[in-house]
């Protein structure tokens, strides 16, 4: 079974690239982030025509997450995270699909830091950890996928010095990440590529793609039962180089 995560950076603007990727790679489950579309304007017909059930949590112009399932409709479990009733940003969607619990996550960027956006990022990560711990306690086979906006290690970025002041690499961001992993989650990409050097994002600015100045912020975290089933994990890097592509590349894991 292949599960993928893809920050699409505008589902309507990238729809041809999304459908192309679905047809070429045929993931069983695909989690999308940064849809930038309201629920009312989501391209449901096109996704369903590609053979996928489509569950989404949209927000006009910003954020937005979705779960796609090949040949079936994901069954929604939860949208949004508990802990801040006033938080209306569409960043978390959880569903049951193909016998797994799957979450699509678009974690706050946190820039500029320090400041309120960074404080929100850290609070959001704490709320995510609480939900993740509940899933582990229930022993539900779970995969938490998405754009975490965290660069975990220095070898997950082309030049650590270039990102040293960014919210993605701050000690507080990394500490929250490793606290989450320490509860029992496995970073699928890291487990298959322990030496690092695997990027999932290349900025549109300053020739990031052309110079291979990228970093890894799209992650798939596996609960213990699924970590035991991990066969492979990687990045569909060539899709980043296509015309009018997202600035992220699809990232995936294969489970037995």
Automatic annotation (TrEMBL):
Probably binds two magnesium or manganese ions per subunit. This is Exodeoxyribonuclease III. The record marks 149 as: Transition state stabilizer. It comes from the Bacteria. GO terms for molecular function: double-stranded DNA 3'-5' DNA exonuclease activity; metal ion binding. It comes from Sphingopyxis macrogoltabida (Sphingomonas macrogoltabidus). The active site is at residues 106, 147, 248. Residues 4-248 form the Endonuclease/exonuclease/phosphatase domain. PROSITE patterns: AP_NUCLEASE_F1_4. The record marks 218 as: Important for catalytic activity. Its cofactor is Mg(2+); Mn(2+). The record marks 248 as: Interaction with DNA substrate. Mg(2+) binds at residues 7, 34, 147, 149, 247-248. NCBIfam families: exoDNase_III, xth. Gene3D superfamilies: Endonuclease/exonuclease/phosphatase (3.60.10.10). One of its GO terms (biological process) is DNA repair. Keywords: Hydrolase, Magnesium, Manganese, Metal-binding. Belongs to the DNA repair enzymes AP/ExoA family.
């Amino acid at each position: 079974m292949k599960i993928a995560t893809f920050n699409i950076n505008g589902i309507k603007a990238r729809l041809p690239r999304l459908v192309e990727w679905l047809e070429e790679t045929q993931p069983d489950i695909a989690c999308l982030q940064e849809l930038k579309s309201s629920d009312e304007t989501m391209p449901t017909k096109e996704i369903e025509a590609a053979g996928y059930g489509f569950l989404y949590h949209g927000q006009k112009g910003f954020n937005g997450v979705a779960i796609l399932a090949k040949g079936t409709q994901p069954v929604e479990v939860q949208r949004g995270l508990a802990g801040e009733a006033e938080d209306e940003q569409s960043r978390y969607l959880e569903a049951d699909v193909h016998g797994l619990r799957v979450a699509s996550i678009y974690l706050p960027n946190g820039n500029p830091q320090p400041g309120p956006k960074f404080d929100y990022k850290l609070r959001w990560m704490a709320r995510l950890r609480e939900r993740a711990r509940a899933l582990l306690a229930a022993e539900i086979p779970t995969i938490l996928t998405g754009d975490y906006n965290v660069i975990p290690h220095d070898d997950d970025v082309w030049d650590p010095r270039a990102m040293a002041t960014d919210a993605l690499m701050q000690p507080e961001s990394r500490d929250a990440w490793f606290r989450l992993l320490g509860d029992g989650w496995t970073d699928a990409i890291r487990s298959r590529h322990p030496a690092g050097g695997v990027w999932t994002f290349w900025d549109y600015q300053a020739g990031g793609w052309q110079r291979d100045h990228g970093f890894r912020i799209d992650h798939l975290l596996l609960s213990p039962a699924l970590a035991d089933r991990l066969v492979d994990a990687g990045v569909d890097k060539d899709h980043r180089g296509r015309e009018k592509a997202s600035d992220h590349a699809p990232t995936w894991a294969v489970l037995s």
